[in-house]
Amino acid sequence: MAITPAATSAPRMRPVCFRLRVRPELVPAYRERHAAVWPEMLQALAETGWHDYRIFVADDGTCIGTFTTRDLDASLAGMAARDINARWQAEMQPFFEGLDAPADRSFELIPLAFDLDAQLAALDPSPRS
């Protein structure tokens, strides 16, 4: 029986985008906290499949996060099982508007509408270097 390339390749990375709302008066402090995230938290994110993770925060408190992962549910569950995440979420909770639960269980997922690389690949399926 021949093994197809799809059977041997790892699952594709999935882009994820989410939205939250930071209290506008706390935006500078939120940015400051995220400029120096605890090393143990950074390591936990990397170990649980959060890749290319970025957070953008506008002055009005609009907060947009993006990352890639092979399995969103597994990445969320992996962080939920970490004590460091519980501590970080408790520290961050006061920064957000309208959340009854920690931010990592409350963010709004935003569906992907356009992917330049995927559309270019569909036009020319030859491998790119």
Automatic annotation (TrEMBL):
Organism superkingdom: Bacteria
GO BP term (any one): rhamnose catabolic process
Pfam families membership: rhaM
Signal peptide: none
Xref: InterPro entries: Dimeric_a/b-barrel (IPR011008), Rham/fucose_mutarotase (IPR008000)
Any one GO MF annotation of this record: racemase and epimerase activity, acting on carbohydrates and derivatives
PANTHER family: L-RHAMNOSE MUTAROTASE
Protein name: L-rhamnose mutarotase
The organism of origin for this protein: Agrococcus jenensis
